[in-house]
């Protein structure tokens, strides 16, 4: 499973459960989107349920948000479950809000 500075995948330890928690942090931008996409794609193909948690985010841009929108859409088309949780700064929340993407988050907590 692809783990790096920006993505950490933790499969569920429950027997028979095809789920994982994915922690995305620090640099979530066009500069890391390929690496993060590869990790998300691998997890998406392996698990039926993904809980994606954005935390300790230093940088966030629209290319990364587009990746999350695409992932949520693909999950709906393939009968998979993707839950997005975020702990974001006010600036990052404003970016998501201005892009009209708050609806992709299942929970949104302030830093």
Structural notes for this entry:
With 111 residues, the protein is an alpha/beta fold. The chain has one domain: STAS domain (Transcription Regulator spoIIAA, 2-Layer Sandwich). The chain has three helices and five strands. It has helices at residues 33-46, 62-77, 90-98, and strands at residues 7-11, 19-28, 49-60, 81-88, 107-110. The chain has a five-stranded mixed β-sheet, with helices on one face. Helix 1 (33-46) packs parallel to helix 2 (62-77). It is globular, with a radius of gyration of 13 Å. The mean pLDDT is 91.
Keywords:
5 strands, alpha/beta, about 110 residues, about 35% helix, Transcription Regulator spoIIAA, five-stranded mixed sheet
What can be said about this structure in brief?
The protein has 111 residues and is an alpha/beta fold. The protein has helices at residues 33-46, 62-77, 90-98; strands at 7-11, 19-28, 49-60, 81-88, 107-110.
Structural class: alpha/beta
Number of domains: 1
CATH superfamily: STAS domain
How would a textbook summarize the main sheet?
A: 5 strands, mixed
| Proportion in helices | 25-40%
| Strand numbers in spatial order across the main sheet | 1-2-3-4-5
CATH architecture: 2-Layer Sandwich
The string of secondary-structure elements, in order, is EEHEHEHE
The 3D shape can be described as globular
Helical stretch count? 3
Mean pLDDT: 91
Oligomer: single chain
User: Which ranges are low-confidence, i.e. pLDDT below 50, for 5 or more consecutive residues?
Assistant: none
Strand content of the residues, in percent?
35-45%
- Give me the CATH fold name: Transcription Regulator spoIIAA
The span between the termini is: 28 Å
């Amino acid at each position: 499973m692809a783990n790096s500075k920006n993505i950490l995948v933790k499969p569920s330890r429950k027997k028979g459960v095809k789920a994982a928690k994915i922690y995305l942090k620090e640099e979530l931008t066009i500069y890391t989107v390929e690496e993060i996409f590869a990790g998300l794609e691998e997890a998406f193909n392996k698990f039926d349920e993904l809980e994606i948690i954005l935390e300790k985010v230093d940088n966030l841009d629209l290319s990364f948000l587009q990746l999350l929108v695409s992932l949520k859409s693909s999950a709906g088309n393939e009968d998979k479950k993707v839950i997005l949780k975020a702990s974001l700064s006010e600036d990052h929340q404003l970016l998501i809000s201005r892009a009209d993407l708050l609806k992709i988050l299942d929970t949104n907590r302030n830093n």
